[in-house]
Amino acid sequence: MVSVSPLHHIQRRIWYSKKSIIKTCLTVVKGSYIGWLDYLQLQTHNAHLYHLGATEEKHFEPHA
């Protein structure tokens, strides 16, 4: 019983550290995923603005 107890304690500590590592990984992945979505949104927004600017320039081109 005494020999099992420290081992059990170590296993529990390992399990808790694994759990916290997984939690940290999930947080990082979630953060990078949200960052990536923001980046994509910004890129599409910029592309849209560029497209609008390009069409406006063509639209308001003085006819020579």
Q: Outline of this structure?
A:
By secondary structure, the protein is mostly helical. It has 1 helix and no strands. The termini are far apart.
Keywords:
single chain; about 60 residues; mainly alpha; 1 helix; about 90% helix; rod-shaped
Percent in helix: over 70%
Largest sheet: none
Give the CA-based shape: rod-shaped
- Helical run tally: 1
The string of secondary-structure elements, in order, is H
Strand content: under 5%
Explain what the structure shows:
With 64 residues, this protein is mainly α. It has one helix and no strands. It is rod-shaped.
Element layout with pairings:
Elements: H1 4-59
